[in-house]
Please model this.
Amino acid sequence: MSTTMTRLIALGLVACSAAACRSANVSGGPGLIQPGAPGQEGRTVSVADSTDLSKVQFTPADVKFMQGMIGHHQQAIEMAALLPDRTSREDMKLLAKRIEVSQVDEIQMMQDWLRARGQTLPDPHAHHQHGATLMPGMLTQEEMARLEAAKGVEFDRLFLEGMIKHHGGALTMVRELFATPAAGQDGDIFAFASDVEADQQMEIDRMGALLRELQK
Model:
């Protein structure tokens, strides 16, 4: 069962049993309620429609968010790939592995989301092009070059500072998404953006602690 279907059914069960909800939809009764954007009312979604993600409303802001976040995640993977050969700290290596695994999986999910809705798949490496527009928090080519050239404690410091900035940019993207009227209401978008906000804030806190330890 999809994330969207699970959330909608859970909301519907507050008012009726699953069987009663199915009966209500067949007879033209009220469907399940999908929450609206902040300050806006929710809308009724039938059980049949909720099983088909292509029919759940999405907006241009949702598409822009997913397309932009793909390149954003790709740079984080590239940063993490530098770490094993440039640090001796096991906690830093573990951090890099965690970032790599989670962001590779999420890129695949975002590509699948866009593909299912007939949207353009961006080049994940477009940020390497000269004059490319960078998403919030992404490192410039000069910053990446300094990171690649560093070793040991200096690399650890630059990596943590750069990744804290990078994650902070992802939080900015989430806030901009949810601040856009009607955006972020697709079930997969809402769940993913909420996870990004929670997970990357947690990693920012963890990296901040590591950075303070390096500065002692």
In short: The mean pLDDT is 82. Strands lie at 32-34, 43-45.
